[in-house]
Amino acid sequence: xxxxxxxxxxxxxxxxxxxxxPQPQTPRLVGPGLRALRPSCPEPxxxxxxxxxxxIAFSFLDYAxxxxxxxxxxxxxxxxDLLYGDDRIRPSIDALTxxxxxxxxxxxxxxxxxxxxxxxxxxxxxxxxxVTRRLKEANTELxxxxxxxxxxxxxxxxxxxxxxxxxxxxxxxxxxxxAEFSELFVRIAAEGGAPPRVLTPARxxxxxxxxxxxxxxxxxxxxxxVERLRSCDDAEFRxxxxxxxxxxxxxxxxxxxxxxxxxxxxxxxxxxxxxxxSARASSPRGLDPLPWRKVGLETAEELSRLMARRTLFAVLxxxxxxxxxxxNQVADAIVIAEACSPDTPVLREATTSARAELVxxxxxxxxxxxxxxxxxxTRYGRLKDCSPExxxxxxxxVMKTLDQRxxxxxGE
Length: 412
Prior knowledge:
Residues 11-33 are annotated as: Disordered. This protein is an all-alpha fold. It has helices spanning 2-8, 49-58, 60-71, 79-84, 89-112, 119-151, 165-176, 178-191, 205-215, 224-231, 234-245, 261-275, 292-295, 300-340, 344-361, 363-373, 388-411, and strands at residues 11-12, 218-219.
């Protein structure tokens, strides 16, 4: 959470403290203040470590240089911890993503200029391969860190499927009878003392963030500029996103405010769809190598125009990756805050009770689900395969069977 907290001034709601203790205040930050930029350093990895830490905090391009040097084998005491510690791993992934795209584009421009296969071309290819490997390792490490942080709170990133057929049947019956379950859940939770603001289910990740604010689980400064961007039309918001894509050092951090993250994500995808054809991208979601035989460029101006479109497309993809990591970080913060909320035990008990009441009201449907699950049980009465793929197939079979049962009941 420190990267998100430093950059955007966002934090889970503070724990309750005695009245005699001062209440911690959310830092009123709207960004890191990247306005007075230091000059770029030709070889920043040679700086003393404390100076290097300051330099990469102020210069993204120097950050990318250091990340590439480390990926290509530079060894220095403290460098790996500086780049891939808990506080730095996300900006390091961002720098590696930028570097990978930049190296690919350099090679393509070199190739189109007729200098394919020379020493410089091969050197860029070697660097690009090294950066790609390091980026994969960094993403794996980030996932491990997320999992570790959530496990410290008794949570996991992904809900593990149960192998108990009774619990699974309870869950799927509640999903099938969603409206009736929601009514039961709200009534039981209200009787248990849950406040009304926690009883409205979120229908999207964006609503989840908004509800977290309403419940006080997530605190971040909502400035007038944030409110203006929340209410502006899509065209204006898209211009803001496009303007941000033209900068690497001095980024528009308002876009990454938690309340704007999902709108930023949607407009990035719109821009990718618009730019991909002119960037000769086979998909709006990835920067594939150019199909050399189909490029058909005749002038230097055409080459320059094509590389400019591909550069813009690469930056949009880079911002999309950053957006995804930030959305995951906010989601994790909300999950942790909800686990610490005093309302959570009441809501869990209400969920269990509402599912049990559905089984009592609809024993035939519950029995039908159990019959579908029966062939998939081990000799010890547990579900054989808990993989997501297999579970989706089994759920579809259950829902289809329930639909057929309900249709036949109506026909009778």
